[in-house]
Amino acid sequence: MGKRMKLMTSLLACGLRAASAGVQAADGSALSEILESGTLKVGTTGDWNPMTMKDPATNSYRGYDIDIMTELAKDLGVEVEFVPTDWKTLVNGVVAGKYHLTGSASLSPARAKVAGYSMPYFEVATVPLTLKKNAERFKGWEDINQAGVTVAATLGTTQEQQVKLYFPNAEHRIIEAPARDFQEVVAGRADAHITSNVEAGTLVEKFPELMVVPVDAPRSRTPVAMLVPQADQVWINYVNHWIELKKAAGFFDEIGRKWGLILN
User: Fold this and answer.
1) Which residue positions in the chain have pLDDT lower than 70?
2) Closest Cα partner for 225 from 183, 257, 264, 187?
């Protein structure tokens, strides 16, 4: 380990200990509850590869988000509990106190009306996917924005709003979790769907019949962060300081490389 990394690690440990000592007595904060209960509760959907993936056989999770939250719990000195949720109830869960924060979620004004966000730690962009047999039919965004084209999206995701914005002339097929929009395309019930560039690569690898439409550029470049209780500034401050220290120590870059992500 180089001198710089040792220094960052030492600063991180000191900073986290100081932050914990200063807020343990803060009444009403999620941080106090976490430290007292010994458990960090994290809301996660388990359906966003490679961010969060649930194995039904073992009821366990793996992915980029899972590694991040496991590390956060470790630095807090508590256990981590992953609470199942879905995209349409993701915000409601953190507002209602079902979990202390969520895994990665795109920043959106609608979500920010009722929930808080941590500072962002990477960025996603939106791309469309279709079946390879449609390669000649769909070569750009406007090819999809046509009458007679059906575009799928999952209820409660940012892509639900983007589908309506990008493709006003197409038919919109909005489906509810645990079903996913890409399944509609694979099954032939929709012609295309949109997703983050993060997930697109994993879908094409898993379903060789799918392809990313060769658009001139992705759309809706969006920062990604954790959803947290809006009024809990003590908890928000702790999470933000943790993110900043971990970024400086190279942790986010390391986990990003592990899961094939390019982080900003």
Assistant:
1) 1-27, 262-264
2) 264
Which residues on adjacent β-strands are paired with residue 123? 223
For 51-67, b/e burial (b = at least 16 CB within 10 A) is bbbbeeeeeebbbbbbb
Q: Given 3-state DSSP classes, what are the helix, strand and coil percentages for the chain, each rounded to the nearest 5? A: 40, 25, 35
Q: Which residues pair with 127 in a beta bridge?
A: 195
The amino acid that residue 63 corresponds to is: G
- According to CATH, the topology of domain 125-220 is D-Maltodextrin-Binding Protein; domain 2 (3.40.190)
Q: What is the pTM of this model?
A: 0.74
What was the pLDDT predicted at 17? 47
Q: What is the pLDDT of residues 2-18, one digit of tens each?
A: 455 455 555 555 555 44
Three-class DSSP category at 137: coil
